[in-house]
Write a structure and sequence with these properties.
Blueprint (H helix, E strand, L loop, with lengths): L1 H23 L1 E4 L7 E3 L6 E4 L2 E4 L4 E5 L8 E9 L4 E8 L11 E5 L9 H4 L22 E8 L2 E6 L2 E7 L19 E8 L2 E10 L12 H12 L5 E5 L7 H11 L2 E4 L2 E2 L8 H11 L5 E6 L10 H4 L4 E4 L3 E3 L5 E3 L11 H18 L4 E2 L13 H4 L2 H13 L3 E5 L7 H9 L4 E4 L11 H10 L16 H4 L9
Helix pairs in contact: 7-9
C-alpha cells in the first residue's frame, strides 16, 4: 500500500511538472498559422507550405507580436536550409520592431559552404552574429536539424542536434562599436530574419526561464573586446593547426575554443609510422570526431603519405596541410628540421637553396590546402632568418603557393613567417590561415597571428576557409607518384 502511494505521488508530481512546463511554453510555430506574427513590408518573405513555415524570396522580417516577451529562455526550432540560405533568429527585440539600429542578438541559420569573399555570409548555424562566429560544418543543406538557443542572465549558448557549439558570456562593460551599441542582453520579442535563399521551419517554441544571476567572465576583458571587434569586422578567428598532444582531449579543446571564441581544426598526423597510416585507420579516426563542433584537418606527414591513402579517403577531411620540414637531401640523408640531431647544414646558402627547391617540389605536386610551419629553419639557422630568406627565395615560395592555390599559414608557436614575408605574400594575393601546431595541452590565444592582423593589415577577404568538397585539391589534382626526396 505504501509503495503504491509513493508511486502515485511521484506520478502526480511528474504530471504537474509536465503541465506546468506546457503552460509556460510558448509555441511560436506549430504548422497552423501566423496570427501572432507581424511581417515587415508585404510579408512576401514568409509563407506557409503544408505544416512548414518557409522563409524565401526577398529579404525580410517576421516578428512575434504575442503578449509574451522573453528575458531568460530556451528556444528550440526544427529547421532545414537549402543551398544559399542565410538568416537569423533574433531575440530581445523591441516593439514596435526596428531592424536598425541593431538591438538584441541574432543567431545565424546558414549551412552553405562559402569563401571569405562574403564575410557576412560565411559564418555557420549557431553563430551569435557580430559577437562569436562559427565556421565549421555541423549539418548540411537539405538536412532537418534541431537548433536550441539558451539565454540566462548574461550568458548565451547555442546547440545543434543537442551538441553545444557556441558559449558566450557578456561582460559588465562589453566592447561595442557605435553601430552595434544596442547589441546587448535585454528583454523583448523574437523575430525571424531572412537574408537570402530558402529556410524551412517545422516547429519553434520558447520556454521562459526564471531570471538568472550574472555569471563571471571566463576570459580577460581585453581578450573579449579584441575577439568581439574581430567578429564585428567579419574576421574568422580559426586555429586550423591543433593536435591532441600533451594530454589535450578533444573535449578540452572544444571547451577552450568556446571560452575564447576561437574555432579549432583538429588534425591527426597522417603518414608512414604515424597514428593514421592508411584508409582503414583514417576511417577509424573519422568515427571518433564525427559530429564534433570542430574542423577535421589532415596533417600530411613526410613525402610518403601520397602513397598510403586514396583520394576519396583524404577528401573526408575538411582540409589537408603539410610542411617541408621532412625531406631527403642530396646525399640521401633524411632531414627533420625540428630535431637538431637530424639536420645537416654544411653550407647555409646551399642548404637554403636545397630547402627552397624542396618546398617548390612539395607544394607543386602534393594536393594540400595549406603550407604550414612556413619558412621555419633549423635552430642553428634561425638567428640568420632575415638574411637567409632573401627576396628571391621568398618570391619562389610565394609563386609556387600562388600557382597551386595553397594558403600560407601564420604560425603562432614558431612566429613565422616574418611580417615582411607576410606583407610580400599579401601583395601577391595569397590566402592566409592561422595555426598553433601545439606540442602540449596549452593552445595559447593565437597571439602572433592576432599581432600580424594589425601589423600586416590583413582583412577577412584574405583568410582561408576550406573549399567545397568537389573542389578539394586531392579530388581536383589526384595523388601523384611518390615525390623524390
Amino acid at each position: 500500500m505504501k509503495k503504491a502511494l509513493a508511486v502515485w505521488v511521484v506520478l502526480c508530481t511528474w504530471l504537474v511538472s509536465c503541465q506546468s512546463r506546457q503552460e509556460k511554453e510558448v509555441t511560436l510555430w506549430d504548422g497552423k498559422g501566423l496570427d501572432s506574427w507581424v511581417a515587415d513590408k508585404d510579408g512576401a518573405s514568409f509563407k506557409i507550405e503544408g505544416e512548414e513555415l518557409v522563409w524565401s524570396g526577398t529579404p525580410g522580417y517576421l516578428v512575434w507580436n504575442g503578449k509574451n516577451h522573453f528575458r531568460d529562455f530556451v528556444l528550440e526550432a526544427e529547421l532545414m536550409t537549402e543551398p544559399g540560405a542565410f538568416g537569423e533568429i533574433l531575440f530581445h527585440q523591441s516593439l514596435p520592431f526596428k531592424a536598425l539600429p541593431v538591438q538584441g542578438y541574432g543567431v545565424v541559420v546558414g549551412n552553405t559552404p562559402r569563401s571569405m569573399e562574403e564575410p557576412a555570409l560565411a559564418m555557420k548555424t549557431g553563430s551569435l552574429a557580430g559577437i562569436r562566429h562559427l565556421y565549421f560544418p555541423m549539418v548540411a543543406d537539405g538536412e532537418w536539424f534541431g537548433l536550441k538557443i539558451r539565454v540566462a542572465g548574461n550568458h548565451a549558448e547555442t546547440f545543434i542536434n543537442g551538441v553545444k557549439v557556441m558559449d558566450y558570456i557578456q561582460p559588465v562593460d562589453p566592447w561595442r562599436s557605435s553601430e552595434s551599441s544596442g547589441r546587448l542582453f535585454a528583454s523583448g520579442t523574437i523575430a525571424l530574419h531572412l537574408i537570402s535563399g530558402t529556410i524551412r521551419m517545422r516547429s519553434c517554441r520558447v520556454e521562459p526561464l526564471p531570471e538568472a544571476e550574472p555569471v563571471p567572465l571566463k576570459v580577460e576583458e581585453a581578450w573579449d573586446a579584441r575577439v568581439t571587434q574581430l567578429m564585428e569586422e567579419g574576421f574568422p578567428l580559426i586555429d586550423f593547426h591543433v593536435h591532441l598532444k600533451g594530454g589535450l582531449t578533444i573535449e578540452q579543446a572544444i571547451e577552450n575554443g568556446q571560452r575564447l571564441g576561437i574555432n579549432y581544426g583538429i588534425a591527426p598526423n597522417c603518414g608512414l609510422k604515424f597514428p593514421v597510416t592508411d584508409d582503414v585507420s583514417l576511417a577509424a579516426y573519422m568515427d571518433t570526431v564525427r559530429g564534433k563542433p570542430i574542423f577535421r584537418g589532415m596533417q600530411a606527414e613526410g613525402r610518403e603519405w601520397i602513397t598510403l591513402f586514396s583520394p576519396e579517403a583524404v577528401a573526408q577531411f575538411d582540409y589537408a596541410f603539410t610542411d617541408a620540414l621532412t625531406f631527403t637531401d642530396a646525399r640521401g640523408r633524411r632531414n627533420r628540421l625540428w630535431i637538431p640531431e637530424e639536420v645537416w647544414v654544411e653550407d647555409p646558402e646551399q642548404f637554403m637553396d636545397q630547402l627552397v627547391g624542396k618546398i617548390e617540389a612539395i607544394m607543386s605536386q602534393e594536393p594540400v590546402d595549406i603550407y604550414v610551419n612556413p619558412t621555419l629553419l633549423p635552430d642553428a639557422l634561425m638567428p640568420d632568418y632575415d638574411r637567409l630568406w632573401t627576396p628571391d627565395r621568398v618570391e619562389r615560395v610565394i609563386r609556387v603557393l600562388k600557382e597551386n592555390n595553397i594558403a600560407l599559414e601564420i604560425n603562432a608557436r614558431y612566429r613565422v613567417p616574418s611580417a615582411a614575408i607576410i606583407k610580400t605574400a599579401r601583395e601577391a594575393g595569397l590566402k592566409f590561415s592561422f595555426g598553433t601546431n601545439n606540442a602540449a595541452a596549452d593552445l595559447g590565444q593565437l597571439e602572433y597571428c592576432v599581432e600580424m592582423i594589425n601589423e600586416c593589415g590583413l582583412t577577412p577577404l584574405e583568410m582561408f576557409l576550406p573549399p567545397v568538397h568537389e573542389k578539394k585539391p586531392v579530388l581536383v589534382k589526384g595523388l601523384p607518384e611518390r615525390i623524390t626526396g
